[in-house]
TrEMBL record:
Keywords: ATP-binding, Ligase, Nucleotide-binding. Pathway: Protein modification; protein lipoylation via exogenous pathway; protein N(6)-(lipoyl)lysine from lipoate: step 2/2; Protein modification; protein lipoylation via exogenous pathway; protein N(6)-(lipoyl)lysine from lipoate: step 1/2. This is lipoate--protein ligase. Gene3D superfamilies: Bira Bifunctional Protein, Domain 2, CO dehydrogenase flavoprotein, C-terminal domain. Its EC number is 6.3.1.20. It catalyses: L-lysyl-[lipoyl-carrier protein] + (R)-lipoate + ATP = N(6)-[(R)-lipoyl]-L-lysyl-[lipoyl-carrier protein] + AMP + diphosphate + H(+). Residues 30-217 form the BPL/LPL catalytic domain. The keyword Cell membrane does not apply. Pfam families: Lip_prot_lig_C, LplA-B_cat.
Amino acid sequence: MGKKVVFIESNSNDPRFNLALEQYVFDEMPNDREYFWLWQNHNTIVVGKHQNTAQEINQTYVREHGITVVRRLSGGGAVYHDMGNVNFTFIADTGDMETLNLHAFCTPVVNTLEQIGVKAEVSGRNDITIDGKKFSGNSQYIKHGRIMHHGTLMFDSDLSVVSKALQVSSDKYESKGFKSVKSRVTNIKPYAPADMDMETFKNILKQYMVQGEDVEIHHLSEEELKRIQQIQEERYNTWEWNYGASPEFSVQKKRRIEGCGQIEISMNVEHGCITAYRSFGDYFGNGDTEELQETLKGCSLQPEALAERLKDFDLESCYSHLDKDAFICLLTE
């Protein structure tokens, strides 16, 4: 870091606001400064820019536990955030970096942890580990000579939720997106001093991560907050960005539904909308599913849109004893 460093104070725990804040700082704040801040999200899955959201999450678990799903600007894999996790963001000039260089930004994290007696190391493509177990995933976004590097630090996350929320379903997906690589994970807290809590840990991060730099504290103005909220509304609150921006994919699902029988569906999805649909199975039905195929074509793969599209369709003619809610669940979960 060479330019003046600005530490941004933000206390929001809304993942959609926090990602909008990153975009605002990167695109609209003066680039004669470098920026750093810490942030936390309530229960959230953040998927990488190039990933297929449907493939990365356990949709049923996510819905039942009120977990927010949002897509970020940078690539890499899906990560789970909760209030036991703290995230950090650096925004700076790329300098001589012509390609993504995650190690340059991960090293300050390793050095900071060393200050509290935790031995960590940068590992593989974008991880930081303790005893070979991952506690930090990192990714970057580069544009117009500027770089945004952000990472997760699992201090005291609920690891049981991590595995369930990101659990891949048994359905067969074929996607042009990038799949997350699962790895052994751990929290920092078991390795830290016994009396250390999250607030103490965050204060240490704030103190050491930009140690020796000329740091300016920046509090977001009302005007800036309004602009960030506008970005949030236009992008990070939308199904089109969080789900619809997924790459083209196909999925095959097989379910046995009480009273109906076994249904196997094959579906192609592009830009979040169904482009092709077929079904097979031992179910009963007097109607021809070709009409259903035409009805579904072009419909976005979200429950509300499907319910509206099927409102006047006689589903019973295709699948005897299958109600529309169960059918929509079959398509979306």
